[in-house]
Each structure stands twice: as C-alpha cells, then as structure tokens.
Amino acid sequence: GVMLVLHLLLILFTLMSGGAGNAAEVSGWFDGIITLVLCVILPLRGFSAVADELKARTLDMLVLTRLSAGRIVFGKWASIASQSLLIALSVLPYVVARYVFGGLDLFGEVTALFYKWLAGVVVAAVVIALSTQRQFWLRAVIIGLPLLMGGCGMASFFMLSRMSAGSGVPITTFSVFGMGGGGGSVSVPVILGLAVWVIFFCLGLAATRIAPAASLLAVVKRSVHLAVLLILLLLAWETSMGAELTVVSATLLSLVMLDVLTERVNEVPSVYATFYRHGWAGRVVLAFLAPGWVTGFVYSLLLTGLVAVQTWQQRGLEEAQLVVISAASMWMLAALLQILPTRHARDLLPPFIFLWLGLNLVVTLLTSMLMMPFAMKSVTAWFTCALPPLMPVGYATAQAADKPEFLQMGLWSASLWPVVLLVAAVVAWRGTRSARQEAWRMTNE
After folding, report:
1. 278-307 burial, b if ≥16 CB within 10 A, otherwise e?
2. How far apart are CA 267 and CA 85, in angstroms?
3. What letter does residue 134 receive in the DSSP assignment?
4. How many whole angstroms separate alpha carbon 125 and alpha carbon 39?
5. 139: helix, coil or strand?
6. So what's the pLDDT on residue 103?
7. Residue 72 and residue 220: Cα distance in Å, rounded?
8. DSSP class of residue 379?
C-alpha cells in the first residue's frame, strides 16, 4: 500500500516537475515524500517487531530452530532494510525522468537517494532496538518525540523550499545533507562506517535483551566497540578531521556506556568457565568483556581513558576534562540504578531511560529557572558543579577567569559517582562468587 501511494504521488510530482522545469517547490515536495517513506514510514514497521514476540511468547519457538538472538533481531531488521532498498530502487526511474527535464545533477540526486535509504535503515535499527521494551507508551514516547521534532523540521524544510523559489537559491535534500560540496575523501567512508556501527550497536542492544543468560554476545559487542573506537582515534590522530572525530568518539562512548551499564549481572558458571579455560590471559580479559554491568563498568573506564587522552591531544585539557565529566553523568545514572530498587528489574534499560529522561527534565528546569539570573549578571553559577549533567551548561556560561577552577571543582564532585558505582560493583561481584567457583571447578576437572 505504501509503495502504491508513493508511486502515485511520484508520478504526479514528476509530471509537475516536467511542466514547471524542476522548480524548487516541486523538488522539495519530491524529496520530502521520499524521505518520509524511507526514513519514517518503513522504519516504523519495526515498532513492535520484538515486543509482539515477547507478549505472544513465541520467541521460544524461534529459539527451537537454533536461531541465535542476534540472527532473530538481524532478520527483523533485514526485512525492513530490503523492502526499503526495493522502494528506493523503484524511485530511480522518476529521478532519471526529472533529470531529462533538465536542471538536475543526476549523480547528486542518486547519491542523496542512497543517503536517505541509509538513514532509513539506521532509524529502523534504532526502532527495532526499542521494540524490545514491552511498554507501548515507553516506545511511543522515545520514538514519537524525535519523529515529532523531525516532522517540524520537515515542515520547515518545505517552507524554506518555497521561499528559495523566489530567491533563486534552490534548497534540496542533497544540499541539506551537506553532500554537495567537495568534502574530504575520508568523510564518506567514515559516514558509512559509523552508519554500519550504529546498526550493529542497535541490533546488539536488542539481541542482548532477548538472549539467554549463557550467551557470550557481550564479548562480541565489546570487542567490536573497542575496535571501532581505536580506529576512530587512529583516524583522528592521522587525518585533518581530528577535532570532528574526537567529538564522534565521545558520542560513541556515551552510547556504549548505555549498553554495558544496563546489562544484568551474570550468574551462569559456563560463561566464566569460557574465560578460565584460557589461563591468566582469559582472567584478564574477563574483567573487561564478561557479560554483566560490573565488568561493563571496568570496560567503560578503559574507553573513557582512551577518549579522554585523545581529546587532550586534539582539543586540549579542558575538553578532556569535559569528556570525563560527561562519562560521570552516565556513571551517576548507573549508580542511582543500583542504589534504587530498580536494580531488581528484569531489564535495566527502561529504568535507565526513565532516570535519563527525569534527569534531563530536572536539568532543563534548573537551567531555565536558576541559570538565567547568573547569565544576565555575568556571574559564574558555581552550584552547577554539584551534578555532572549541569556541568557543561555551567561551564559554557562561566566567566573566563573562573573556568579552570570551575572544571577542577566539577571533576572532584563528579569523581564521587564512579566511586559509588565501584562499591556497588564490588558487592555485585561478590554475589557471583559461587558461580565463578563452580566455573573454576569445571575448568580444572
């Protein structure tokens, strides 16, 4: 149905393009309808892809077919991605027809169509990752808010397209994506690589939610995350895109921490036995790659150190300190997750998201109510040092002379949260002692 409606609209827009000589207004509508289908409508087909399986309790039937959790999730994403590719390919004749009418860059339009498809399959991976949550309203809020903001952005895009028609400066989706200029040769491979990683991250996040406790999926995920981060840091060191890639690395760090800090503590002896069979090297690797948020905390310390050192080299000490403070925000949420009764939840991701949303609401209220008087009086808001999420806002509005001391105070207050999380990790690790002892006996029999 979507495909038939799309083609009817595209036929109409193509005829209008021919009659109007590919006017900017018609081009804007043409790009907008394709973007809506590839980036919104088709990805939303995965809204309940896993939730329906969980509610109907049909995942056990899939497991009996010897499909792993990763293959189940990948299959659901691949069906949407392949259908999106089919529709994207079916759009090509209309692009060629509009090129025949004149005034279009065929290569640019085809490239823009590819990036729309790529963005759509990335969004589909995000939607499928969120479809593992049983709560319909939670999925609706998390997915609906970005779509609402994107819809407002698309409406603004259409208005700009109309305004540009009179100014003689055409605005197309291709120019909005920023692919029309002569970008560096490294940028396109980096964009494609990051898109592949985001898809892997989202599908891995979804697979973790439905995988059995004895699964070693965490080993694969963390190994890939570490490899991607090291590649980004190497590119930042060797290319002229160091500053941009450092920011990308910090964003990657936050996403990985979201994943590893919401894993359940693993109490299956066979999981630990896999590491013990490799001697002392396996025991060292166990501290970073074994499933569970306890080792995930140690793993996040390693990644934070790598990103902070690279940021120090590329952007200076102050930016590196802000990276550590940003990581402390995630550690604070994880610590609160373990202090509150939510630590007994079957899946730690929903309460983590609740805390994140609530914390952002508090930060927004404090920023609007308390920060304005300080900003108007050009006075440093020292109270923002108390919470790591408030630190970036406080640092941005602080007086230049106060910024070094402000960061030092912020680091001292932020260091409280990894210490609290470390104490909780030690307690949780001691709780798995019997499972690790059984694993040791299994490997030495």
Report:
1. eeeebeebbebbbbbbbbbbbbbbebbebb
2. 42
3. S
4. 11
5. helix
6. 64
7. 16
8. -
52 band by pLDDT with thresholds 50, 70 and 90: confident
Residue type, 233: L
Contact 172, 160 (CB under 8 A): no
Kindly report, residue by residue over 125-166, the tens digit of the pLDDT: 999 988 887 777 777 777 766 666 555 554 454 444 444 444
Euclidean distance between CA atoms 326 and 321, whole angstroms: 9
d(CA 290, CA 65): 26
121 contact partners, CB below 8 Å, separation of at least 6: 43, 77, 80, 81, 84, 195, 199
* C-alpha dist (Å) from residue 323 to 277, 336, 349, 351, 369: 37, 20, 23, 24, 26
Q: What pTM was computed for the model? A: 0.84
- Model confidence pLDDT, tens digit, residues 412-435: 889 999 999 999 999 999 999 999
Phi, psi for 407 (deg, rounded to 5): -65, -40
- Which contiguous run of DSSP H or E holds residue 56? helix 51-56
Residue with tokens 């402390």: 328
347-375 residues labelled b (16+ CB within 10 A) or e (exposed):
bbbbbbbebeeebeeebeebbeeebeebe
User: What is the distance between the alpha carbons of residues 165 and 147, in angstroms, rounded to a whole number?
Assistant: 27
